[in-house]
């Protein structure tokens, strides 16, 4: 081909690229421009992500998307023809625009002209289908590659389609596609490491961990060596199934196989052990991380800080934050937000507000969730003025409140009995375009019940129904609890039946409220029947210490103390520890319902010993604490058990040494 012809073809290709990017007006005048009437879609129309496949098929039913003039050039060169590069440029640009109808026209024309189809062009189209959330179209085109376009498929195009399906969350479909293609006799596609990584990820997402492990073990047989992504994906799947020991053993295995872990690999394991509360193991993993030359990143520090906050070790979390900064790892919103949430959980919302100030001094803007946690915490601690001040500062700093923050403020105002102010904030919330959620309405109902105005609480419920608001278990629980507390058992039973009729499952609050209402009305046996029903329900509906205390109180009032003790034994067998209310119920019953009256010292002492024997140290310690508050000293043997379980000799020795050194220095 003469040089001028080659140059001419490249120039035309560049011209088409430019015209697709800048619009039709930039196409050179000597080439005809396909102008459409206003009643038709332009072939250059960019469909939105919501465009259906049927609508896509109707786009561009007019002229060809390209002009014949573009391809009138010189002779064929090798296996390529003049204009091939232009076709490939068109495919890339139409794929980038998401104009699938025009893509089909280009493919049809290439087929008519017996053009050579390259796999890379189809991969570009597959990615475009992925962006448009059309995995079915990608699969269809993959199947057409051989019989319609006579293009040889390789593992590259196969992986591309497989990834599109997985990105859409169609995990079962992905496995079916994998089995169909790799299991076909006519297929020459051999899975590679990326294929296995994608399939293992899919199996983990479906909870099929054992099958994922089998697939992992098959890789060497298929002459595929697992890489760091393979190990990390499988570790994550194992950790999600609480099979942490197996995940950690994979860490050792990968290093023996010569595959060096990355920071992301360690982060998966550290996150799992932190969630389990095993901070000592997390620390060992961090040490191992340093030994392997992996530097902890922001994710590592955030995970460790979150783990420390979950265990209530806020001082260590803050010190780790300082270490994070000194290691040139920049804390982000998640880091500060985690510490703020941890402080709020410990009843230290004021300290959380100080962290917020420090965060903003370092150039970080707090998000809505940090503000909502602080506002809720301040209200719970009775610091209404500080909460309102924080709300005002948040608005002044340009942080627009969302539904979560508005709901936190409304809940706090309702706790303080400021129902009128709460209703004003609710109106403002709706005007700002933030729709109230179940927590918002539940807070207002709860507030009206607390001030004894059950009528207005019921009106809020009716407003929710009139607005076609979808009530959930929380809303029903609040309404049932409020009606039972107000002595309106009949109305509570009606709501209970309505809740069951709509398919909602009562949670522990709803069950406890109904049992309390029945017991208060003297219907103890009906309450016990409902109590026994709880054991057949989901974990969130299992009885807790509050439910048991309702039963204990009802039985003790009937002088059925032996029966109440049977339930107490059952409670401890279920792993639920007694609290201060439990102790007070039984102490009162032993004083008032037993002849001769007992002070309860022996009863509590025996209870503490039983808990110690079951290694429930925290529960036993609470019983001993109650005994001391009630001036009922434990036996000497119980004291010895307390000292043995709670006092660590090394820590005591270290504390004594520190005291002596401070005295003599």
TrEMBL record:
PPR repeats lie at residues 192-226, 227-261, 262-296, 297-331, 332-366, 367-401, 402-436, 437-471, 472-506, 507-541, 544-578. Pfam families: PPR, PPR_1, PPR_2. Keywords: Repeat. NCBIfam families: PPR (TIGR00756). This is Pentatricopeptide repeat-containing protein. It comes from Carya illinoinensis (Pecan). The lineage of its organism: Eukaryota, Viridiplantae, Streptophyta, Embryophyta, Tracheophyta.
